[in-house]
Amino acid sequence: MEQLHTYMQNTGLNPGGWRKYFSFFRMRFFMGLQYRTAAIAGMATQFFWGMMEILLYNAFYKADAAAFPMSFRALTSYIWLQQAFLTLFGAWMFENEIFDAIVDGNLAYEMCRPVNVYNMWFSRSMAMRFSRVCLRCLPILLVAGLLPEPYGMSLPASALHGLLFAVTIFLCALVVVACTMLVYVLTFYTISPVGLRMVYVCAVDFLCGAIIPLPFLPDGLQRVIELLPFASMQNVPLRIYGGSMSGGEMVRAIGLQIVWIVVLIAVGRMLCARAMKKVIVQGG
Amino acid sequence: MIANQNGQKRSLRRSIRLYGAYISMNVRSIMQYKASFLLSVIGQFLVSFNVFLGVFFMFQRFSKVRGFSYQEVLLCFSLFLMEFTLAEMFARGFDSFSGIVRQGTFDRILVRPVSPVLQVLGSRFELTRIGRMVQAVIMFACGLSESGVHWTLPKIVTVLFMLIGGSALFTGMFMIYAALCFFTLEGLEFMNVFTDGAREYGKYPLGVYGKRMLQITTFVIPYALVQYYPFLYIIGRSTNAVYMFLPLAAVLFLAPCYGLWRFGVRRYQSSGS
User: How many CB atoms lie within 10 A of CB A166?
Assistant: First the structure.
């Protein structure tokens, strides 16, 4: 029993142990809130980006409305939410401090702490993303909501869709962070993060629907991509909100999200634990 | 008078030689890290390849957008990407200028008997952008063979004008970005809208975004002069020969940019530590 208890404590499964990860989260969260000027500049940029996207899709809609795979209202909501929550979804958002810790050996200090490295980095990454989103999302949504009819953002398709949006956006954040954790952990094995990070960002950007929403892809391709963990990211909440997904589709998508969260975290923790056992600290 | 002209010629020749030396220095230093260079080239390629994929799949679903076919869009996209990439390769020094100002390195630049612009231009030469260039050239080749454009000498000259005007315009944008650093000491992220944003949305002919956007990009930030109008002339949608020379008019945009830069240099107060 005692053994099990220490094991649980070491791996961070101990319920009481969660408190320390929550303080990591809180610490990072408030640190992130300090970057207000960057947030204002970012909001202006994202607002421009969203406007251009909508003007572009508007041109395609006028060219052939029948070929449009979702309603135009659903699309405008998709784009504005995408811009507002960009810093929650962004595949490119890595913490250089973590890479540095792995590459230059500062990891040794982290290992001395009585915490599980995986959990600590996980809570840290969640905190960074949530703090940035808190700063940025409301003003963008507010302005987008005030825009005139075809360009502005509309309310969720139904109360249920709105509720499920809130649930799935949280699940989506877990998938995103679990995936970036895999990249961090794999850096233990590759030493240099550059190549891995680059390929990851490019692949995810396309596969998660950040370049164009997944329904715009050809049907066969879309069906395959939707099984990948990347489709469990922004694709799910953004489409649920506007009603581009409904009924059984939503249930299936949420189920898949949960499966991927479990699998990704399990694999990440396993690889991390293995790397920790034979880590060779570089540099001094 | 003649002596003065000779002097100017000599100083120009000297500047060009110096700039050549800067470039060769930059290239040699990049080549010390071949693996990292190669990775960056691939990265540059992949990033803009994603943008291409977006365009490609949109046209799998839609056959035309505002009357432009896929091949035509490809041609327009590749030309604009080339303009941007040329400017970025040669003038990216302006982009990292906030660092030069903040660290006080600009003081050192000012005391040297060479024009500051030349030194900032020479401070970086981004050979890694060759990855993006390769993609632009491939897309251009595809667009070229399939768009059914009837190529004539004036059209080929228009392409050259577009490359010159476009890279000048982007260089001007980088210059404004740098000049603003004199006042703010840090790079203004919002300026990215006018450079990276333009590159991103210049993938489609600017007329696609509607009349308002076309007016802005014609009269305020003249991207349409190096993209939309000459492109209409190339694909034969317009026979107005004036469109051919509009990219050269965009070169004039460099004048106010340079003015702002000069104003900044005159106001510059050292900030180093």
Answer: 12
Q: Which residue of A has its CA nearest to B51?
A: A211
Which amino acid, A200? Answer: Y
Domain for residue B272, yes or no? no
Cβ separation of A59 and B61 shorter than 8 Å? no
Round to whole Å and give the CA distance between A155 and B117.
51
Which residues of chain B have a CB within 8 Å of the CB of A55? 208-210, 213
Q: What is the pLDDT of residues A240-251, one digit of tens each?
A: 999 888 889 999
**Domain assignment of residue A69, yes or no:** yes
Instruction: Say yes or no: B252 and B238 in one domain.
Output: yes
Quick one: B3 and B114 in the same domain?
no
DSSP-based three-state secondary structure for B218: helix
Per the domain annotation, does B75 fall within a domain? Answer: yes
Q: Above 90 in pLDDT, residue A266?
A: yes
Q: How many domains does chain B have?
A: 2
Say if CB A114 and CB A57 are below 8 A apart.
no
Is B70 in the same domain as B137?
yes
Q: Contact B227/B202 with Cβ under 8 angstroms?
A: yes
**Are A63 and B36 in contact (CB < 8 Å)?**
no
Task: Report the gap between the CA of B192 and the closest CA in chain A (Å).
Answer: 8
DSSP track, A94-117: --HHHHHHHHHSTHHHHHHSSS-H
CB contact under 8 A, B193 and A62: no
Q: What is the model's pTM? A: 0.87
For B197, the closest chain A residue by CA position comes to A49
User: Of A202-211, B2-11, B42-51, B94-103, which gets the smallest average pLDDT?
Assistant: B2-11
Task: With CA atoms as reference, report the closest residue to A236 among A224, A217, A221, A252.
Answer: A252
Residue range(s) defining the domain that contains residue B251: 37-267
Is B255 a domain residue? yes
pLDDT in tens, B74-126: 999 999 999 999 998 888 888 878 888 877 788 888 888 888 888 888 888 88
Same domain membership, residue B198 and residue B79: yes
Shared domain for B118 and B20, answered yes or no, is no
Facing residue for A63 by CB, picked from B42, B66, B200: B66
Q: Please indicate, yes or no, if residue A14 is contained in any of the structural domains.
A: yes
Which residues of chain A lie closer than 8 angstroms to B200, CB-CB?
49, 52
Partner residue facing A211 (CB), from B54, B188, B189: B54
Instruction: Identify the DSSP state of A210.
Output: S
Q: CA of A55 to nearest chain B CA: how many angstroms apart?
A: 5
Q: Is there a domain that residue B47 lies in?
A: yes
Q: How many domains does chain A have?
A: 1
Q: Would residue A283 count as lying in a domain?
A: no
Clarify whether residues B50 and B14 are in a common domain. no
Residues of B in contact with A198 (CB under 8 A): 39, 42-43, 46
